[in-house]
Amino acid sequence: MIKTPTTTFEQSAEQLAKSLATNDIAAIAMVFHPLGTTETLEQLERLNTIDRALAYRTLPKDRAVEVFERLDASLQADLVAGLQEKDVSEVFAELSPDDRVALLDELPASVANRLILGLDERQRALTSTVLGYPQGAVGRYMSPEFVITHPEMSVGETLERVRAQLDDAESVYTIMVTDAGRCLKGVVSLRDLMRAEPVERVQDIMKKPISVEATSDVEEAARYCADAKVLVLPIVDAEDRLVGILTVDDALQVLEDAESEDAARSGGTEPLRRPYLATPVRSIVRARVVWLLVLALGATLTVQVIGAFEATLEAQVVLSLFIPLLIGTGGNTGNQAATTITRALALGDVRPRDVFKVFVREVRVGALLGLLLGTLGFVIAGLAFEVSIGLVIGLTLLGVCTMAASIGGLMPLLGKAVRADPAVFSNPFISTFVDAAGLIIYFLIATSVLGL
Amino acid sequence: MIKTPTTTFEQSAEQLAKSLATNDIAAIAMVFHPLGTTETLEQLERLNTIDRALAYRTLPKDRAVEVFERLDASLQADLVAGLQEKDVSEVFAELSPDDRVALLDELPASVANRLILGLDERQRALTSTVLGYPQGAVGRYMSPEFVITHPEMSVGETLERVRAQLDDAESVYTIMVTDAGRCLKGVVSLRDLMRAEPVERVQDIMKKPISVEATSDVEEAARYCADAKVLVLPIVDAEDRLVGILTVDDALQVLEDAESEDAARSGGTEPLRRPYLATPVRSIVRARVVWLLVLALGATLTVQVIGAFEATLEAQVVLSLFIPLLIGTGGNTGNQAATTITRALALGDVRPRDVFKVFVREVRVGALLGLLLGTLGFVIAGLAFEVSIGLVIGLTLLGVCTMAASIGGLMPLLGKAVRADPAVFSNPFISTFVDAAGLIIYFLIATSVLGL
């Protein structure tokens, strides 16, 4: 489907494995020779740390820099350990300041300091601008190299400035317009500059800028960049002075990483820092075990609830048959609500202040779902067992669905309010609180309907 | 944090609600007057269908087109119903062909046909090119308006072509290089063109193109565009002839929609077609009820398994205390594995052919997790109840975690192999099969250890 002018991915992977096994440097180089940067990356990401360093060293110089730039920072740090000091400083100098900072975060302090000292003065200054912002702030991900013009400048002069910075600027397709005090006044696209007459003033064709403060959360800024469909998002300081730009490809990378993290956490595991096949088994275990323990400890609540109703169960063992089904349905209903609200929060469709609206909606949704499932449960369980059991199951489903949907819908909002990740915050609550509350509803309804 | 030169979101929303309640058109227009396109969109998305049409009509013409372009196709279709025929055809003519096709898919056939007939000939031809590809294919999302040059052309001539198409082309920052037969030969960036001498040939500065076939899955193509960090991805037909381009902002939109869909489905609900607060309660119920029913019906398997061991439970009611904890832990372990593998598949870190590698890894991960949790379970349950119960719980946790991780890891791969969505495919399997299998493991271990 997707066209690459080469052998298939699997063929290359096989050849590469064979060449690595025999330590055949020339053969390794041959495998990479016909591949593009993206394919080279995909192959490298699947190798273990030692093989990756070995394979990387066979790449020609310019390709090596391109590949290095696009590796995850954690894999870059692995590579640095396997390369010669000289190779590293050369590649390091080629990175853009934001990529450099991401790598520095991954390296031991001694290596990091040596690398910074190896930079020329200008690059060192640019790097430390970016380094100055806290982790997770968009300032860390911005590029401090961009083209500036001024409102009273002419289109022709501005185009000259663009031409002078074709090599250095991170993006030349959106030009920042600032006043004498570096305050952001507008943006103008290269397309509009080319369309205008050279004597026109920039202020007559520039657009109102949207911008983000450098201390803002990077994920929020990246989503803003994506939603606004701009190639470049200006980053300003508290006084509205331009300090950098976030390009759409960096925004995309941020969103993809955030998506990986969210997907992992909402599945109850820490995100892996390396591609799956390149992650040691013990790291995978480490990423999962804490969550599993927390959830298992939370689940001891259900042991206690059932223990409290042990007499009821002894009188009617048949009640234990429905435990997994009932708490499963509660969990599913809660997850549905939490998933919907988490996503709506991420997209800005729902805000924390909408908490009451969300609650009312989810109570209604949960009650309707409970009515449908409860009626069905009443009929099926009533036929298969007896009418009184059917009544218990039906009423419990109604109660559990209403409770689960409303709790599930509120949890992400509560998570957001206490500044936790909504997806992460919801999961343990739903699988412990909703389970335990569901069991209590079940046994209370059972004891009163069955007269136990 | 994010700077907008206006009143806060909440203030605008409040004012808007007030003005809509009193049908005060002038006041509504006032609310939108200071807002940018993004803020206007955010406000409109929160309204119900009728209020949205009313509010939209107060926007000035050029702003209206901009806003319309960026609305979801389903909301566009809602709007069309509330607007005058003339307004609609004007806006429709302004849309780019790919956006036009997305809207057409949402409209009743009669409205769609009338709108197509209202287009001029060139736009009608461009629209039908895009309409010719199946839904879900990248051809549906591409733009057929782009700048073309040829390898033997000079840089100066190419820049002339760019200037001539500044108004029409979807992107002018990446220029397609084709031969006389429209076959894609390379791409050249406007930056490189500006850097080169006007007499240089395009073939000396063009880059090797990466491209995607028009019938390819759009999500795959969008991710490819994002991974390759290109502003524009060329789309070709089976004979490598250029037919369109996918721009990075359209790719971003595709990825965001796909993310919403995946998040919804892996949470066991159909994605909502409209923003949460703009979706009627009965639509939310409809999006959730089918999944809930399927999962509840699947869970009747657990009723049968427990029913088969009812005698065991009657002899030892204490065993029922641990049912939620054990199947919960199994479900969590399975979900962790499924989440990790689903994500690794999406990122291309794991391929369906790696199934055996994944299985071996997940068995090891599951066994290790089971060993840790099982030991803990043995100690705690042994102390709280008796040693034999502790042994049952410990061994069951070992067995359940190993089983759940391996099944959970395989499911997304199996889903991918049968061309189902890995996230959707895994969920019902894990919550029914893993639950039932876990219960069987539990009762078998219990009967043999306790000698029942």
Automatic annotation (TrEMBL), chains A, B:
It comes from the Bacteria. It is found in: Cell membrane; Membrane. Keywords: CBS domain, Cell membrane, Magnesium, Membrane, Metal-binding, Transmembrane, Transmembrane helix, Transport. The keyword Transport applies. SUPFAM superfamilies: CBS-domain pair, MgtE membrane domain-like, MgtE N-terminal domain-like. The chain crosses the membrane at residues 289-309, 315-333, 365-385, 391-413, 425-445. One of its GO terms (cellular component) is plasma membrane. Belongs to the SLC41A transporter family. Acts as a magnesium transporter. Homodimer. This is Magnesium transporter MgtE. The lineage of its organism: Bacteria, Bacillati, Actinomycetota, Actinomycetes, Micrococcales. The gene is mgtE.
